[in-house]
From TrEMBL:
PANTHER family linked to this entry: ARABINOSE-BINDING PROTEIN-RELATED (PTHR43649), DIACETYLCHITOBIOSE BINDING PROTEIN DASA (PTHR43649:SF12)
Signal peptide residue numbers: 1-25
Keywords assigned: Signal
Tree of life domain: Bacteria
InterPro entries from the UniProt entry: Bact_solute-bd_prot1, SBP
Low complexity: bias regions: 29-56
Origin species: Cohnella silvisoli
Name listed for the protein in its UniProt record: Extracellular solute-binding protein
Amino acid sequence: MNRKRMASWALVGTLVLSAVLSACTDNKNSSNTSSPSPSSSSTSSPAPSSSASAPAMADGPLGKYDPPITVTTVRMFNSGLEFVKGQDWDNNVYTNGLKDELGIIVKNQWIVDDQQYTNKLNVSMVSGDLPDVFEVTLQQLQLLVEAGALADLTDAYNKYSSDLTKKSFGEGDGIALKAVTFNGKLMAIPNGGTTGREDSQFIWIRKDWLKKLNLQPPATMDDVVNIAKAFATGDPDGNNKKDTFGLNLDYNLFNGWAGLDGFFNGYHAYPYNPGGPTATGLNLMFLNKGGQLDYADIQPEVKTALGKLQELYKAGAINPEFSVMSGEKSAELATAGKVGMTFGQFWNAGWPLNEMKSKDPKVDWGVFPLVSADDQPVLKTSNSITPTRFWVVSKNAKNPEAAIKFLNFYLEKNYGETRDENYHSVKQDGKDIATFGLSPVLGGFSETNQNDFYAVQDAFKSNDPSKLNPTAKGYYDGIVNYRKGDLKAWPNELMFGTEDGSAYGILGTYKKNNEFMTNAYLGAPTATMAKNGPALKDLEVKEFTKIIMGEQPLDTFDTFVDNWKKQGGQQILNEVNEWLKQHQ
């Protein structure tokens, strides 16, 4: 199972931000000697102090520079980094391959661990001492674009990008491309670490409880509400005690496990608070309503869904202690057999439900698609397709197209016709040493797991698993073993087993029908988000919780909306709509 690496934004104080903008702008204004990109439309002549000879060029996506060029970068590593024996940052499969095949010499200006990288780069931004190619957060990208410190990669992309690179940019309806486009100009390369809508939710339900109470899987949100009530009152575990609950949730309210995202989606509402009340408050969800961005969490549909949750709480279908329960505690409620339904993501099969079947063969959780409250399709909140880290090129780089070539090379060696396993990992002393992270620019495709699912299904239909890659073969073997009686392999069945009864089967249907709602704001946290966002999110979670528990009437939601706007929300709306004007 692929785990999405969550990147956190390091917020820089107002004075530091001003210094960054000032330094980058000063650097920009004094850099008259920088050379234009190969396809630049600029007609200005180079300053007298610039080199008389034009920078080396190399035609085609993987064309070689002759003579070689040098491209500077900066790097970060985590504590688990290992090198192949005899290799290091300056001597490895990528530095050698780029030099030998593309004529590019990679020079690392500095290397720090990933916990120090953002702050170290902030210092470089303040001083104006930037390498040619480097990785940034979304906020750093915004600052550098505003300062005019980055190269416009539009022409370089159009002229040099390979088919694989264009494919990676075009995934998810081109969301990654939109995220790096400013005023019609391509200003960055999106990190390829996004996932294929895998943050979309499903309904996980105890099928054995449905059978016990003679109930059918839900077709509407009314069915969801009625099932939740029945699980709380109908003694589905057969112990003659009223000790079960219908809908699982905890104090996070929004999460990949026991979150309410999918419940709200059923009422066409899209509140979003990853991480719950301890989140940074910077991950706000906005909807495009008639050409204007509006905050998803204050829409009237949210109030409707909160009313249904309040109804379930009053009916005893929700644990009355949910407001003090962590995600781990809500997981214990499920694994103890005390709750029969939860909204969550694909990985719930691997945690916390994974061992329930082997411990009690009668347990039978099933995964079902989200359902609608009316006759309109239900869209699923999904933001994992949106990149949060990027590679950028300094305005002063002599060969900005080299960054595009870095990506071309990485994708070719990992996914192309000349794919070479050494560019991904090397077997050493009985274990795999990862090498892919040594590339100065990384990429990828968000549909890897989904494609493995379809490959597994094809293997079952043809009864021939010989064409499966090692990862997909592992899923296939797990499903086979489960069907032969190995109950510990149950998660493989739940995630990859069938087209209509597994997480990736249902997710594939979501994708075919394009049933997603994605954040319409792709910019960095605005100034007011950074200042007021955490307090506003805390206000929201508290008010929603009080409404669900009936401590406040449903109409309190209208007061919350007014307070949200007064306490900085309206200014946030002004700021994100200003961003929208620049990206239309």
